[in-house]
Structure formats: structure tokens, C-alpha cells
Design brief:
Layout lengths: L16 E2 L8 E5 L23 E2 L2 E2 L4 E2 L15 E19 L10 E7 L12 E8 L5 E5 L5 E10 L3 E2 L1 E8 L12 E2 L8 E5 L23 E2 L9 E11 L3 E5 L10 E7 L14 E8 L5 E4 L11 E9 L3 E2 L1 E6 L9
Antiparallel strand pairs: 1-12, 2-6, 3-4, 5-11, 6-9, 6-10, 6-12, 7-8, 7-10, 13-23, 14-16, 15-22, 16-21, 17-20, 17-23, 18-19, 18-21
Length: 345
């Protein structure tokens, strides 16, 4: 499984995180009907695959969500269309969605719409839904990229398909918004964690896999679930710049080379800068060294505390991970005390 096997739609995916991905905890809660294929497929990685001639009890196996043909069947709440309620893995501001009907050629819906909600606890009949994508025509076997104009932090989505049919994947691209209520005073927080809004801005090389993988939840499951560069044939080194989700101090660093055994970097160093409100490209920045060049080992979590040279009260917004000369890193964790936007925790 390669976690970079995602649709390449630079319109959204190069700027934002898929807040609905199964990888970050997104899930389908329930739907009006999933006779032919389960709604849980909507949040899986990739665009879905096709296995021609592979039949199950309900017919051709489909890698997506597919409801029955409507005719006179009754739906919940007597609606005239099918729907699926989903929980975002990361609450956040949604800037774009991708409704992908890949491989649904003769069974795609004619139209879709999307509603969003802010839910504490469980979705129920009292949940207030707000339309963020009005009823819009779709085409079979296609990606549909739609801009979303909203500055609200959402927690749930409801995908409506008219009147029925199949959708392979649903993506909700946006900015994670960390909730201070999830933390206690004095708690160290992973400032680079994708759930807290961390994002890999730019890398010297992403030949095998993306720098964004380093900020994902849990430990990497394989070499595809990390950042790996191609072999360098010069005297230079590879690097990645990460925008921290929260400005803060740097008190503990974990660098994990899990699964990288013959291709881990020989050494690394970590630099940082405090430049709020800017996306840092690297060349015009005076980087401060946080951890000097240090030896790394294969398939191992490396913990750094006493090695950190920054003062305890210094604040940073970006870090630059340098690896020498090249190789793969599974996870990068930057723990510190955050500066919460607009209000102190």
C-alpha cells in the first residue's frame, strides 16, 4: 500500500489536507442504502480500483459507495434521493471537495449536493445542516472538483446523490483547526501534527513518497507511509520545510525511521524560524539550528530533548528537516508549548 496513491488534483491537494480521509480518522457513519457497495469506501485512499468480472452476492464488486436503483423503494425520512452522513477525521475549514465517480460508468448519480454541520456528540434529528455545495450535475467515471466558500469549522458532512447510484471517493480538502479544549494547561503538543494543522510546504525531492506523510497519525505502516527521496549522486543533501500548525516553543523532537532499513538517512539536522503569516520557501530565510547534525539509525524512533539548542521560551512557526545525504523518514514530531490563536488556553 502506497499512501501517495491519491488523485493528483493540484487545485486542492497541493495546498490542503483531506480532512475526511480514513487515514486521519474520517469515517462514514450511516447512509440511506448501501446495497451494492459500502459507504465506508468513500474515505479510503486512492481513487478506487476496478476488478472486471469479480462478482459478489449483489453483483459486480465495486470499490465505492453504491445504492440500489430507486424505483418505489422507501428511503429514510421519505426523501427522493440517497444520502450518506460522514464524520471528518479532522475538524476544519473546507476549501474544496472532490466527488469522484471513478469506474462508475453506467451507475453514477445524475446530481450531487453536500451539507455540513458542527456536531458535539452524535448526529441526530436535531442536527442543523448547512448546504455548502448546491445540487450540481455530475458525469460518470470522473473527478468533480468544487470550490467551497465557507470559513466555518465543520465536523460532519452529508453527501446527497440524486436519485441513486455510485460514488467512488469523497474528499474534503481544507485547513485543520486545533481545538484548545482537547488539551490541558502545560501539556506538550505536537505542533507539526497534521491534526493540529501541520503541513509540509516544500521538499527538495519526493521521488518515492510525499513529505506530508511524516506528519500523519500513528507510526508508519510501511515504507510507502513516509517521506523518501531518490538517491543523490552529488555532494548536496535533501530537506523538507514544515509549517507548524501552531506557533510555539520546541521542547522535544521525535524522528522515526520505521521500515527504512537500507535507505534511512545517515544523519539529520533540524532548523527553525519564527515567521508568522508566511509560507516559507527556504532560500531567503535565516534558519536557526535547533539540533545540529546527528547520526541516525535504521528502523528506529529517535528521541531528542537535551540536544535541542533553542531557549525554552523561543517561539517558532516553521521547521526545516535536513537529511544527509538522502533517504527516508517515517515520522517527524515537534513537541512544544503552543501559542493559541486569539485567546490563551
Amino acid at each position: 500500500m502506497n499512501f501517495d496513491d491519491q488523485p493528483h488534483d493540484d487545485k486542492f491537494s497541493s495546498q490542503y489536507i483531506d480532512l475526511l480521509s480514513e487515514r486521519v480518522g474520517g469515517k462514514a457513519l450511516y447512509c440511506s442504502d448501501e446495497w451494492f457497495a459500502p459507504a465506508s469506501n468513500l474515505v479510503k485512499f486512492g481513487r478506487g480500483v476496478m476488478k472486471p468480472g469479480h462478482f459478489v452476492d449483489t453483483g459486480q464488486w465495486m470499490d465505492g459507495w453504491e445504492s440500489r436503483r430507486s424505483y418505489d423503494r422507501k428511503r429514510p425520512n421519505n426523501t427522493d434521493h440517497d444520502f450518506c452522513v460522514l464524520k471528518l477525521g479532522i475538524p476544519g475549514i473546507i476549501h474544496g471537495v472532490d466527488v469522484d465517480t471513478n469506474h462508475f460508468r453506467g451507475n453514477a448519480p445524475e446530481f450531487v449536493s453536500i451539507e455540513a454541520a458542527v456536531v458535539k456528540g452524535e448526529v441526530n434529528d436535531a442536527t442543523e445542516w448547512v448546504e455548502i455545495l448546491s445540487k450540481t450535475a455530475t458525469t460518470p467515471h470522473s473527478q468533480h472538483l468544487f470550490d467551497i466558500n465557507s470559513d466555518q469549522v465543520w465536523t460532519h458532512l452529508r453527501l446527497n446523490i440524486f436519485p441513486d447510484g455510485g460514488v467512488a471517493r469523497l474528499r474534503a480538502y481544507g485547513e485543520p483547526v486545533a481545538n484548545p479544549d482537547n488539551y490541558i494547561d502545560g501539556e506538550l503538543i505536537d505542533l507539526a501534527y497534521v491534526v493540529n494543522g501541520g503541513r509540509a510546504l516544500i521538499c527538495s525531492d519526493m521521488f518515492f513518497s510525499s513529505g506530508s506523510n511524516m506528519l500523519m497519525p500513528n507510526r508508519g505502516v510501511n515504507m510507502g507511509d513516509g517521506w523518501e527521496t531518490k538517491r543523490r549522486r552529488d555532494q548536496d543533501n535533501d530537506w523538507a520545510i514544515v509549517k507548524l500548525g501552531l506557533q510555539g516553543s520546541i521542547r522535544k523532537v521525535i524522528l522515526d525511521t520505521a521500515h527504512f532499513k537500507g535507505n534511512f538517512p545517515d544523519r539529520f539536522s533540524l532548523q527553525a524560524v519564527n515567521m508568522p503569516g508566511r509560507d516559507v520557501s527556504g532560500a531567503d530565510v535565516e534558519w536557526q539550528t535547533i539540533i545540529p547534525q546527528t547520526k541516525l539509525h535504521a528502523d528506529q524512533e529517535h528521541l531528542f530533548i537535551s540536544e535541542i539548542t533553542a531557549a525554552a521560551d523561543e517561539k517558532f512557526t516553521h521547521v526545516r528537516l535536513n537529511i544527509f545525504p538522502d533517504g527516508g523518514v517515517s515520522r517527524l514530531r515537534i513537541f512544544g508549548f503552543p501559542v493559541w490563536p486569539s485567546a490563551e488556553k
